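Minutes, project check-in
Item: structure for the 395-residue chain
Input as provided by the requester:
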Amino acid sequence: MKYFEKDAILSGIGISRIGRRTGIPGRDLTMEAVRAAIDDAGLQPADIDGIATLGDTPAAEVNAELQIDAADCGSGFGTGGLLSPVMSACRAVAEGRARHVVIYRTIQMLGGTVLPQQKNAPAPPLARMFDAPEGERPAVGAMDDINDLVAAHAYSAANWLALNCRRHMELYGTTKEQLGWVALNGRRNAALNPLAVYRDPMTMDDYLGARPVSTPFGLLDCDVPIDGSVAVVVSRAEYAADCPHRAVRVEAIGGSDGAGGWFHRPDYPKMAMSDATAQMWSRTDLSPTDIDLAQLYDGFTYLTLAWLEAIGVCRDGEAGPFVEGGSRIARDGQLPLNTYGGQLSAGRMHGYWALHEGCLQLRGDAGQRQVTQRPEVGVVSVGGGPVAGCMLLTC
């Protein structure tokens, strides 16, 4: 069977200025990234006939800035989490509804809000989180159980994912130091990325000494808020012959529908990435042993370990030992990981910087941080908890 994504390529990528508290309007950052991606694809704005986004700068404003009338080709989370607009764009070009679709994600350092909760609501019993028999777990969707978490005074994803991490530690002996190697590897790679917001050297002592956030997470386990935008152009596969550089092909995609919510999965502490990767592997003849490069979501260090196991690079419980010491995940290692510095050091772009970097590496355009042996197959992943998406890319 031929899946629709195989008729799509990533023809162009673009990134805006990156910084912390820059004061630059989101619209300006968006247009910097969008124009750069269109130019990188060897196209003119008039060639763009589709737009997909997560609802950052409105598509109508991008159309107006580019003086075009591109159709809406998908927005929101869908079933691929933050990668849903990219997946929607692949479907749009495969079905002939568009030829070139631009997708963008723009982030600004704005304050968050606490979800509403019932006053004096009781905390959910721990049995509901860990020990209830499978048949007794309620059927919940992606965000249905957040009120229970907030009622238990767990107000952020740092709290929620710390539960998954602690459970993984109890089951498999995963250590804080092993989490640290994800952060240290990211910082080592960020040193070679002029756009990364944190490039100073980091030691294990620095990591272990960072202030606590939500046990076992400390400050350096958490991604870095930034201002910035990343854009990508998805084109029909036949455009590869006219692309000014090696086109990146979409081999397979996978997403989740949020079943099980944050803590009602029967296989807890596993998360939505287990469903997303299963779908991805069902759509290709490739296997985990074919992967040359991994740009994996690191909103928190533990999420990267969870993705390594979900993808099949490691068996359950083996991701900690796999990253320990940092040699296997170095740029010249067995599986180069988050070569741009990841969200932990470069900055939080909700996985779109990972997609940008994956394309650069596969094209051989990553400059000083290009991996020693140019990769031919790369995996990009976004998300954790109840929503996740992943893409297998080739060049």
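Outcome recorded: DSSP finds 13 helices and eleven strands in the chain.
No further action items on this chain.
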